[in-house]
Batch of 2 targets.
Target 1
Amino acid sequence: MKKNSENNPKKSTRRDFLKKSLATGAGIAATGGLVSAYLDTSAAESGETVKVLSTDGEIIEVDKAHIRYPRVSRKESREGIPGKKFVMVIDLARCKNARACVEKCQEGHHLPKSQEFIKIYLLQDTENTAPYWFPKPCFQCDNPLCVSVCPVGATYKRSDGIVLIDSERCIGCKFCITGCPYSTRVFAWSDYPEYDEDTQPYSPESSSPGLEGTVSKCDFCPDLIRVGKLPYCVAACPMGVIYFGDIEEDVVTNGSETYQFSELIRDRGGYRYLEVLGTRPSVYYLPPVERQFPVDRGFDGLDEEVRSRYDNTPYVKKQKKR
Amino acid sequence: MANDKQSSLLEEFIPQIERTSFIQAIWIFFLLAVIALGFYALYLQIAEGHAVTGMRDNVVWGIYIVNFIFFMGVSYAGALISGTLHLFRAEWRKPIIRMAEFITIIALLIGPIYILLCIGRLDRLQYLVIYGRIQSPITWDVIAIATDIVGCFIFLYLAILRDLSAIRDFQDAKIPNWKRKMYHILALGYQGLPEQKKRLHKATDIMAGMVIAIAVIVYSVLAWIFSVTLQPGWHSTIFGPYFVIAAVFSGCGVLIVVMWLFRKIYHLEKYITRKHFVNVGVIQLVLAALFGYFTFSDYLTKWYGSERNDELLIQLLFDEYFWLFILSNYVGVLFPMIVVGIPKLRTIGNITISAVVVILALWINRYLIVVPTLESPYLPIQDSRTEWMFYNATWIEWALSASGVAFFALMMTIGSKIIPIINVSEMGDKPVPEEEIL
Amino acid sequence: MKKIKIAYFLWMVTILMLLVPALSAQEDNEPEEVSSVGTYLNFSTLYSSNDSVELSAKLSIRRGRTFIELQNAPITFSVSNGTDQLDLGEAVTDSTGFARLTVPLTPPLPADDEGLISYQADFQGTDKYDSSSEVFMSKPASLKVSFFEEDSIKYIRVTGMQFNPSGEMEPIAEESIYLFVPSLFRPLPIGDIWLDEEGTGYVDFPPTIIGDSTGQILVIARIDEHDLYGFVKGEAWSSWAIPKYFLAEEKPTRTLWTPIAPLWMIITLIILLAGVWGHYIYAIIELVTIKRIAKENEY
């Protein structure tokens, strides 16, 4: 509560006491997983609700976005989940720019609409090759230049391969943004009301946007992984484009299909983007062969604003000329 | 203690310290107003966040970092020019050495402010010390700049010590008591005893060498902030020496302009002659050649090898930034060379104009290093709000830039009110024989 | 001391502020739900090898095109033989809407002539939610996983058995069985087996599967959504998997991105700083000496 009070007086007024009272007063006894959930009402409402029975037998309805899991300590969040090394495989043959990953990620991390942790590019390697949609999360490199250049150790690499940012350590010098050759990092240019600290102590693992004046990025959702859930983008993709898993186990899954990672990479010619830079990413791509959709399908149903973001791509420019 | 020559010089320069003219007061007031505007802009930036600047996720560093490089570069003028000329015992340096030292120390104080303006959380600056990681070029920079500031202060102090004692001993000066007391304390009881003289000389020699060395390190470290990244346009081995040369080059330009201004304001025509302008102009010519050579090497190899992203960057430079590129890297190199290279053109006015061109060209050069590179990353800028794709500095950034320049001018003015802008003691040591000037 | 007091006061205020709206909230909330909402039960059975059946029911309501799971709802399970209803017990739904109950199969549950048992799940309903009920019929079965080696080729063997009402066991013939190994998020399919008339089938042990650090792995055989058996599962541990190799163990400690810098960097920095600051100190000592000389000369 203390960290943001000096430059954001409006925060405390945003508290939704009604919702909070349900969390503390009535209480929800979730018993499903390893940990029990609690309510965080600071988050923006997703509109989707979950019915839960309170301990006195009353059924109450809470917003899905408000359900949280207890956070690990900052110290623990620096070490990583033991014995794991996470890897992502993105099947370019299936992506049709449905943008469910972008939206679910924004919702899950409470990002403002002006920030994306995962972006979808319309790449065309050369004039004579075919364009394809290219979702780009953070590559969680094994030789992360962003971590090397950080002057205060606010961003760090963990034993499970995830590169995280400690929003309470970051001084906002933006060096890591220029250090990342994949443009994955974003800066909090102004204060986002979506972010509010709740009663839980801050953890870099928790899914929240960066504080004003700090850097944030895609984090492979370690808070979800800890409770055995797949990251938001993986679970959201209707096409099953994104596979996720533990490379030590050699298994990746997109939720409905599960493969041996090494076999998938072998059989589908998996590669890492811009291998030549020596950053050793943890994200692999399967080339866009035998595609399930023509590339134009990616423009279907897009907002005009989102559509205009692709106006400067060679493909769209060429289409417009015709 | 002071010899006759020194006393007569002091008599000439003491009015500069004694009183401030009306025009000077207006000038100072004007500078303060510009600085106040900068403070207002700074307030807005802190209150509303960096969103008020033109910087966005693609171009995360804008003209603040350009100003940072620029002022750090300017600070190099004094270090190198006064340091080298001191070590080489060049006689003609004496009238201009004080200005060079002023430029160094003032620019060195302004430069780091601009990197602070790029930082999102100023309330956490102490983390740089508490959690410092020495793998980060920013940490190198913090250490190097701190060392540089300390070194330059010691050097400047050594250089003004004799003048301080001269003013202290100059009884006729009509200056307030507090000022007299200040001179008394600052002069450290220096009386020009042989032992004192010897020690001062030794210390000055050592520090002259140190400031040259540390300035090379500081400027290289600054270049490495860019060249250690993988960004096309930055990831270049040549950047260290390139930045060092560009720094001295811009410092030279600023020195010429400052010489011209003080010569006009304090009527120093007797001391600062065309010879001085030509001499610094010749240094500037050599540096222009070197700067041109480094620029050419850097872009030639990028263009010839034509790696995809280098090619895109060069295409952007010759497309969107064509005129700026021509001005900074062609005009900025050739103009000072022509002006000083052709004896007929070597007038004080021409050399000063060429210096102004150099200053502008060098500022633009840094802009062209920082901004277009960030506008052409490895992954093309896509799926990003269209208004976020290109960088345009906002008035906030311009106001803060202007107030940096105003602060520089203000400090130069105030400096000249405390210590004579001409090194009185050194001038008094020995008359300057004409033939010793180049 | 003062701090503690303030903290205590803040706690009191917080609790009060939470309590007050909690009381008023109830009044606000109640009129929103006028008519009760229909609920849906998804019910199935799973036979694991250990002679028991796991009943699982998922309770949800429909909102537009999506289903929303209900949590903490009590579900009662029973079994019927056409006339009598035998209570099996009660379970409460978890955060994913599932209520699970494991029931032993000895003594046998009442079954019809074909050996099918009619299980039933019931949600009583509340003021706001309708009651719902679902019946699932299945025949107890079991899958046994074992391993054998022949001509230095490793195989997985699965034997399927079903329980007749008479109590005797009979092979599950001509059925497809799917094999999995567990993994972090979802089980990894490693192949399928066709059971012959004797109820057995085998398949090569996959050579590239990674187990734990000693090469142990759990192999699971499953029949899913079968008309007769519902869900059947059998599992066994094998030591034939590739031992897991931990990358994390050889984590580099002194690189550019680790917290501690490479040694050469620290040494270079110390040499540079010592060199420069040494000279600074020398210059300052000279200045101090100048001052001392002045004092000695009683200036």
Note: The interface with chain B takes residues 256-257, 259, 261-262, 265-266, 269, 272-273, 276-277, 279-280, 282-284, 286-287, 289-291, 293-295, 297, 299 of chain C (CB under 8 Å).
Target 2
Amino acid sequence: MNLALKDIRFKFGRFLLTTFGISLLLMVVMGMGGIYRGLIQEATLIIDRAGADIWVVQKQTKGPFAEVSSLPRNMEYRIAAIEGVESACAFISHTVQRDFQGRVIRMTIQGLPDDGQWLPLLKGRPLRESHFEMLADKSAQLPLGTRIRLGKDTYEVVGITGQMNAPSGDAMVFVSLDDALSIRNDIPAEGIRSEREARVRRFDAMPYGSTSAEHVEILRSASKRPAALPGRRISAVLVKVREGWNKEEVLRRIRELPDVSAYTADEQRQIMLGGFVARSRRQIRLFRTILLIVSTVVMTLVLFMLTMDKVHDIAMLKLLGARNGVMIEMILTQALLIGCIAFGVARFLGQWAYPHFPRRVVLVAADLWLLFGIVVGVSILASVAGVVKAMLTDAGEVLS
Amino acid sequence: MKQALLAENLCKRYGRGDTGVTAMDNVAISLDTGEVVALLGPSGAGKSTLLTALGLIRPPDSGRIVIDGTVVFDNGYKTDVRAFRRSNIGFVFQKANLLPFLTARENVQLPMELDDISGGKSRRRAMELLEQFGMENRQGFKPSELSGGQQQRVAIARALANCPKLLFADEPTAALDSVMGRKVMEMMKRVAHDFQTSVLVVTHDTRALDVFDRILRMEDGKIGEK
């Protein structure tokens, strides 16, 4: 006769409510762990997906994610010319915030050197045209066919990706490299005109004889002539090292360029984890620890109260000559059942709830097993209070 | 007749100094096998203290208790009281004290299972006991679904589950009407004769004293025969 199960069946409603309450608590603990993992994954997602061996960024910056990095467009050709470089590809990443259909959307615009076939597409297709097409992450909540104005052009969403968020948590949208440059370097016509005029004025101020009328014409001419404004800037250059070449050697050669800094993918990952998201990681880890302590206290209190409710029955069992093991088994079984079922319910509810969280929640099997172990440990620990109470219960309490 | 219980020089005092109360003052009591004895006395006379001492629930300060030839207390417990109680002593109280989450049959079955008697055997014996007390058709009911009298009958059946040498009852009829109270007292008598169990009933109820073989009276911690 299993007394624990019979007692649970007798007070099934209370058992369900208690278990449900603890499961909600565990769901939050689980979610916190998931957010922690999600933060790490988002921080390193594009670094991992890009598959570059070396990231080349503006000199003495830790860009392009941890801080702003700006390189001239032609940097990719300079890098490509270095011995040992298989390919060099411009990388553009910048975040925009727009009001769209009555809501605020934040997007990290990513320039694609290809059609984005490699992206995890949930709906739609990769980019087919060189311009004005966009792949948007599901979290941007821009359905297929949505048209959105960015800079001077309107872009149509042709594909929806899943789980592509920037380190900041914002949804990533992918456009062609040239489009990304256009969006990033969008300067109003009046700004260009003003700059041209400013240049002419500076030109006029130069000593007579050092300028010519033809130069003025050039400064005021169309875009194929020397530009009125500096060239478009990119965020970084992604480098693939040629097979058979030592990565360190290529890195050393790139670092010899006076106007760039270069990092391996691992270094770039460390920059993100050690700097960009380090504070958030520590905060979440601390919060998760506090939640675990709170859960332990709550579970201990709940199980102790459940035991307190049974003091009279425990006294009766003692009077009937029940061994201590009977009471311990009863309390421990209930504690473990509450803990394990609450964990299962939390896992189930989490599966439904976490996708609705604004930040990505990544549940890792190792984390879940660890949490399960902690829950079992906490259940045992929590039942100790109940067991101690049961052991101290006097059989004579039946008479009172 | 064989002696089922012999207790001598039992003393118990609560508190210290001038405020202390002597609950048992050199109490001596014996019960023969199959004997049914009533213990009367006013509140505070020490009846419940004696019952808890004889039932090995709370030890007296001093004295000696022999149950069925085994010295279980001699100025200290001489045996594993819980195990001894499980096999040799049954209790019935004013309230039935049935475990609320078990059915009538399971409540009767429980002491046997605690004594490692197999499920099938304990189930059969529990049904036999319930039949003897006319409760077989209520065997699947939870205590909350039974009347006070029915609960008390189940409690008596439970007390007899392990064929105890002694059955102690503390005011078993206090919560029952006179008809049911008398029935319960008669059950005690039947139990003593059928199961060869010695029964000591602490009671205030003087309406059914005729069923007892002997009546003891306790006052101010001392015991005497009426």
Note: The longest strand of chain A covers residues 103-112.
